[in-house]
Automatic annotation (TrEMBL):
Highest taxon listed in the record's lineage: Bacteria
Name of the coding gene: ascB
Gene Ontology molecular function, alphabetical: 6-phospho-beta-glucosidase activity
Top-level EC class as recorded in UniProt: hydrolase
Keywords: Glycosidase, Hydrolase
Name of the protein in its database record: 6-phospho-beta-glucosidase
Highest classification ranks of the organism: Bacteria, Bacillati, Bacillota, Bacilli, Bacillales
Coiled coil: none
Amino acid sequence: MATRFPEGFLWGGATAANQLEGAYQEGGKGLNLADVLPGGKARLELLSQTGFDFEIDKSKYTYPNHEAIDFYHRYKEDIALFAEMGFKVFRLSIAWSRIFPNGDELEPNEEGLAFYDRVFDELHKHGIEPLVTIAHYETPLHLIKEYGGWRNRKLVSFFERYVRTIFTRYKDKVKYWLTFNEINGATHMPLFGLGFSPESEETRLQDSFQGLHHQFVASAQAVKLGHEIIPESQIGCMLIYAPVYAYDSNPENVMHAKQEADIFNFLSGDVQVRGEYPYFAKRYFKENNIELDIQDGDLETIREGTVDFISFSYYMSRTDKKIKTPEEMGQGNLVGGVKNPFLKASDWGWEIDPIGLRVSLNELYGRYQKPLMIVENGLGAYDKVEEDGSIIDDYRIDYLREHIEQMGEAIEDGVDLIGYTSWGCIDLVSASSGQYSKRYGYIYVDKHDDGTGTLERKRKKSFYWYKDVISSNGENL
């Protein structure tokens, strides 16, 4: 059913600096986490193991993030293509180590600041609103090696200096901000979000929730600073969201699914939106021997620094049961669970559940009554260039159409949904697998896992489809 989206709905696409900029040592930029993560299977192994050493070893691995798709030099060409599709908004992140190469300097790197000035100016030239993620899996490497990442409270003040710098610099250019990307995913994969590799499984939860607490304080400080420096700013949190279905109607599995959803989907949301730790956190912390070092003023800061809106990524739902065998397990984006017999999966094993997006929107809006924005959603797939140069990605169009239809249903349900930026609007390096071949974009980039390619941009079939979706405000799907 075609649904009229609200007037002024923010259609666009989403990216992250470490996955598309490249130029990893240009413009005074320091190394960050993504720069030391190799491509391919090696990345997945490192993400799931303990004790990663954060060193670059080009004799053993490839590092696709170093060049990525070279947005650093090609941003004008790419933004022109986004404008051709009719983007109202473009989600990008600032690489912290472009602004503070080590993360703990007193003065910022002017070359890095000037680069984002140019990008924002180019976006505005085309009438596109920037939506900026402040921290998107890009912790400066020095802060990881020297301080142990977000386990160390010192990062709160380093982050505040970084935030104050970019808010002051871009106050007339950026209205929409997000603090930490997929903040709640940090406990599953602390390497990405918190910038440390767990020393052991026994210490993972304690260290992760302590690091998360530091990020909650830092996020709240950022919201307060933003409202002070940019009074008309809108600052959101960013969650990875996956509704949790019980595998069956066994009450034990229903209760298990509820508890999993509470911890994964709602703990971080409650802190950032309601301004306090939820009631169920106490028991979870006690049963998992988690003791947070909460300093004077922390809870007050969190209470005063609640977000203006909620943004989230949605790729899949999760189905779970209390007792499961390895054979029953499904694959997914940071989220475990068992295979759902009613759903098909992508080339990478991620289950496809458009109705789950409507479920998610209703759950989030029902709980918080704050405006919502979907800032990641998309299909990672292998694309083939035909002999005539065309890329016929009907599978991607089908995936996006079905999800956008469910967004329309949620709006009919009464949900206040203000925007949609599909993930990887131009092909980029996958965060989870470090591959080029896992493509999400409307724009094909000629770059391959073996490092070959011309970086030429080509419009896929989905490019023209999405252009029509935007120009009709969601009516032509």
